[in-house]
Design a protein that fits this description.
2 copies of one chain form a homodimer. Chain A starts with a strand and ends in an 8-residue tail after the last helix. The first copy, chain A, has helices spanning about 35-50, 85-95, 105-115, 175-180, 180-190, 215-225, 225-250, 265-280, 300-310; strands spanning about 1-5, 10-15, 25-30, 55-60, 70-75, 85, 100-105, 125-130, 135-140, 140-145, 255-260, 290-295. Chain A has a 5-stranded mixed beta sheet, sandwiched between helices. Chain A is built from 9 helices and 12 strands. Chain A has 2 domains: about 1-105 and about 300-310, ATPase, nucleotide binding domain (Nucleotidyltransferase, domain 5, 2-Layer Sandwich), CATH 3.30.420; about 115-295, Nucleotidyltransferase, domain 5, CATH 3.30.420.40. At the A-B interface, helix 7 and helix 8 of A face helix 7 and helix 8 of B.
Chain lengths: ~325, ~325
């Protein structure tokens, strides 16, 4: 059994994953807000404690950035960890077995390639489109790490060089600056969108100023026909299509999988995405590329983390 | 000894290359204009005939597109070859030894990594900026072929999605559409450039309407301070910088080498290139990327073709 761990800004998850990549026992806990480094560590240690028996290896996905493969993590959404030696702490807790770590978006890409929508692809980009836009690159059937573990950063491919929005990275016109959920929601609000999608109970949930609006709410309103929401999804879809065309030409991809919150946005996102992709991916070899929603859902990060150990011949990480 | 062959639209070159990658005997011939397939083949066969003794393998670089690894070639600039079975014909001529073929820009990238400006790089893009814009990708120290042999097509990364110029591929806003030499020269002429660079004998060579103007002439005028030529080089440099930033974020590159006619353009090209690159390559890991002119010159294609055989562990091609 492999202990798989997925650390994000809203939750920490862990599971025992069998050799077939199936999570057998899983647990999760909310990532404590405003916690210091040791409180965060104790939360994680307590989470995995019941899963520690008979473990042959530990695979970890964590929000970036991090040093790699050392795994000193500084997740953007977990301010309490800055240069926290997550891999070293886990290695001390689990002596004598491999402990490997990678960016959480890379783990999702690996999972989709190993067990999900990317099975059988030789050259794929696995994307996550959510609060951020990330990804992982599998070429010739093998995970491309990059010298610093950062290959796959499709979110910072430039899609709007002239006058594109500023990006959290310090640049401007990056795919992420246009297509991340919060940027889309902000764009839509600025263009007159009034969030009005159905709430979790199915009833219409009118907009309240104090409620955070998300890309997911925007996607729901676009599916319901809201004009500004449709325009926002079109903006994101075209940006995604342009970046995917560039990546396809550069890396000779056959498949792109899209996971994360916006992957469920349907035609309002995927229609304009396909339109822009086919407009720009015109070399003969690039026309074969397919774009498909990811298939593994929320457990993808855990499955991919386990694959760093269970399928190391394909997803090698030092 | 390896027989290396480099087939382009203006010349065919061949050489015997020793195990250290040094061309020992070389020959070249102008590619016959308007020749049919068999005339082109006979030209090549006659060229290599004096070099055939004691050859252990044949490596070939050829202008694309081609089927790969089969090597049925349809070079854009050699209309007489459309689906010509170049690798099969060479394999029949050289039975019992390996015959491998790749895109000519890939061969240049391989050569720069093996023997040139890219030595020691783990993750590099080797570019050729000339009549077209091409490249080859080496990640984790190994050539990335792509499923169809087309990885490295940096020329069709999108740098001007809105209102960018139409591209030969059928798309628009591609790097190649902006930065290829003929497109730059056309842009400069349309903006009032009067070519006036020194001729081969060092004397000023006034513009004649009947003389083809090239990116090289434009680069020379930019170095001499011509304002429109400087603006054209700036246009190309910024487009290159944007595309390189995108490639660096996606592939976690440490180095980009630039070969081809425009690689000698100096500060008027490389200044704006660096400016745009540093403006867009802002993720911490991306700041380490360096851009440098290629170092091998005209023989790079031959050296890289030989490497397909001599250093197959790094530059594997089936």
């Amino acid at each position: 059994m492999i202990l798989a761990i997925d650390v994000g800004g809203t939750k920490m998850a862990a599971a025992l994953v069998d050799a077939d990549g199936i999570p057998q026992r899983a647990a999760r806990v909310a990532t404590p807000l405003d916690a210091d480094a040791e409180t965060l560590w104790k939360t994680l240690a307590d989470l995995v404690e019941p899963l520690c028996g008979g473990v042959d290896g530990v695979g970890v996905g964590c929000g970036g950035p991090m040093t790699w493969p050392d795994g000193e993590v500084s997740p953007l959404n977990i301010p309490g960890w800055r240069g926290f030696p997550l891999r070293a702490r886990l290695a001390a807790r689990f002596p004598g077995i491999p402990v490997r770590i990678h960016n959480d978006a890379v783990c999702v890409a690996v999972a989709e390639h190993w067990q999900g929508a990317g099975r059988g692809s030789a050259d794929m980009l696995g994307m996550v489109v959510s609060t951020g836009v990330g990804g992982g690159l599998i070429l010739g059937g093998r995970l491309i790490n990059g010298g610093t573990g950062n290959a796959g950063h499709i979110g910072h491919v430039v899609v709007a060089p002239d006058g594109g929005p500023p990006c959290g990275c310090g640049g401007h016109g990056c795919l992420e600056a246009v297509a991340r959920g919060p940027a889309l929601a902000a764009w839509a609000l600025a263009h007159g969108w009034t969030p009005n999608s159905a709430g979790p109970d199915g009833r219409a949930e009118p907009y309240r100023e104090d409620r955070a609006v998300t890309g997911r709410a925007l996607a729901a309103d676009a599916l319901a026909g809201d004009e500004v929401a449709v325009a926002a999804m079109r903006r994101a879809g075209r940006a995604l299509g342009i970046a995917i065309a560039s990546a396809t030409h550069l890396c000779d991809l056959d498949l792109v999988t899209i996971g994360g919150g916006l992957s469920q946005a349907g035609e309002p996102l995927f229609g304009p995405l396909e339109e822009a992709l086919r407009e720009h991916a015109r070399m003969d070899f690039a026309r074969r590329v397919k774009v498909t929603p990811a298939s593994l859902g929320q457990e993808a990060g855990l499955v991919g983390a386990a694959a760093l150990i269970l399928a190391a011949e394909s997803y090698q990480a030092p």
